[in-house]
Design brief:
The structure is a single chain. By secondary structure, this protein is mainly beta. A hairpin with a 4-residue loop joins strand 15 and strand 16. The protein is elongated, with a radius of gyration of 23 Å.
């Protein structure tokens, strides 16, 4: 994979899920997701500005509301929980899911993926009646289940939540327990017992809500930045969680301005933690920063989502993209815009009565959508993600001449002739 081409293996996973179903961690209203780098991930010089924010144009966006976003590795879903609804981003469009039950309409919840149980875990938030909650919910790829931990953290919104691979525990910090009640406690969630435990580190960040929090695989540390203790006190400090304790980092200047509700996510494509936006003393900001493990570097993307306080962000391993959702707009962070080109073979063979799959591949950014001209045999179909699949019916054996088009809205569409051969044993009689 190169810096301008999303990994095709990851797109296989995303496409396979689309066929089978034919679908970050929150910090206050912000969301943070950090996962280990995907195989073949490369480092790009984002400080020079080659990577940019690109606004996507989904046909069915979620409602204009705050939500929390995280990638579910087990089910290969980029899940958004917003306004009492559950949505999935597939790299091109949002699909509203229909789980048998789901959390109530809440704001300021915390959401993280727990690989030990292969589920997303959601905690707290404020419901539409203004009540602060301490409910714990889990998403298993199909539905939400409210858990019943023995002694959960007190009710709160705006808490920071991230998975710590060193201990196989989710770590929760701080939040807002109600009117002018800011918290500085640290909790862990054990996926085996499904219980919360309050920790007692020797030192910790000051009480706050809306801090950005996520795991940095490059340093094997959890990174927490900013947050606020009411409008009068906003932080610009960086804290590291490792070996069961907090350490205050001392990055050299420049550092991001004091802020809360910023989006922080580890971008496995560039091997960087990316911080975006948030609420500063001058209002909502729209700057982009990366964390190198010891210092902050301000990046210079050609475009950005604009002021987006409380946006949700997470890295989608299915498409190798950083995804940001704010209000009802969707942005991705990736290489420069480039017209599509099809790189897959111009010939493929299926067999009558046997299930088969052929993946179209290509380059360009944003990701291209595929369509075909020509008659497909009964039993086969082409998904917008470039997956030709199905089981050819009896009597469909022959060669089919197809014209494949890949479009991503940048430059001219790519066009390729594809010969589809369907083999069929001779019919006697």
């Amino acid at each position: 994979m190169n810096a301008a081409q999303p990994a095709q293996a990851a797109r296989h996973r995303r496409a396979d899920r689309w066929i089978g179903s034919a679908i970050a961690i929150a910090a206050g209203l912000a969301s943070v997701l950090a996962i280990a780098p995907a195989a073949g991930a490369v480092t790009a010089d984002t400080a020079a500005g080659p990577y940019n924010w690109v606004q996507e144009s989904p046909a069915t966006p979620p409602p204009p509301t705050a939500g929390v976003l995280a990638y579910d590795q087990a089910s290969d879903q980029m899940i958004l929980s917003a306004d009492g609804e559950t949505w999935d981003w597939n790299g091109y469009n949002w699909t509203q899911l229909d789980p048998s039950q789901e959390p109530p309409a809440i704001a300021g919840a915390s959401l993280a993926y727990d690989p030990a149980i292969g589920e997303l875990v959601l905690f707290g938030g404020v419901d539409d009646h203004g009540d602060v909650l301490n409910q714990t919910w889990a998403w298993n790829g199909t539905t939400w289940t409210q858990l019943d931990p023995g002694t959960p953290p007190s009710a709160r919104s705006g808490a920071s939540l991230a998975y710590d691979p060193a201990t196989d525990l989710l770590i929760l910090f701080g939040g807002n327990g109600g009117i002018n009640t800011y918290l500085d406690d640290t909790w862990s969630f054990n996926p085996t017992t499904l219980n919360w435990t309050e920790l007692n580190p020797a030192t910790s960040p000051a009480a706050r809500e809306g801090a950005s929090f996520g795991y940095d695989p490059a340093t094997d540390q959890l990174v927490l930045f900013g947050g606020d203790e009411g409008q009068a006190l906003t932080y610009a400090d960086t804290w590291l969680w490792t070996s069961g304790g907090w350490t205050k980092a001392s990055p050299s200047a420049p550092v991001p301005a004091a802020r809360s509700e910023a989006s922080l996510a580890y971008d496995a494509t560039t091997n960087q933690m990316i911080l975006y936006g948030g609420v500063t003393a001058s209002g909502a900001d729209s700057d982009t920063w990366s964390w190198t493990g010891t210092a902050w570097t301000q990046l210079s993307p050609a475009a950005d989502p604009g002021p987006a306080p409380g946006a949700s962000a997470g890295y989608d391993s299915g498409t190798d993209q950083l995804v940001l959702f704010y209000d009802n707009t969707t942005w991705t962070y990736g290489p420069p815009l480039a017209a599509p080109a099809i790189t897959s073979a111009a010939r493929t063979t299926f067999t009558v009565g046997k299930s088969g799959t052929f993946q179209l591949t290509g380059t360009g950014y944003p990701l291209a959508q595929y369509s075909e001209i020509g008659d497909l045999p009964a039993g086969l179909s082409l998904s917008p993600f470039g997956v030709l699949s199905g089981t050819p019916g009896n009597g469909s054996g022959k060669a089919y001449d197809l014209v494949i088009t890949a479009s991503n809205g940048v430059g001219a569409p790519a066009i390729q002739d594809l010969v589809l051969v369907v083999d069929q044993a001779p019919i006697i009689g």
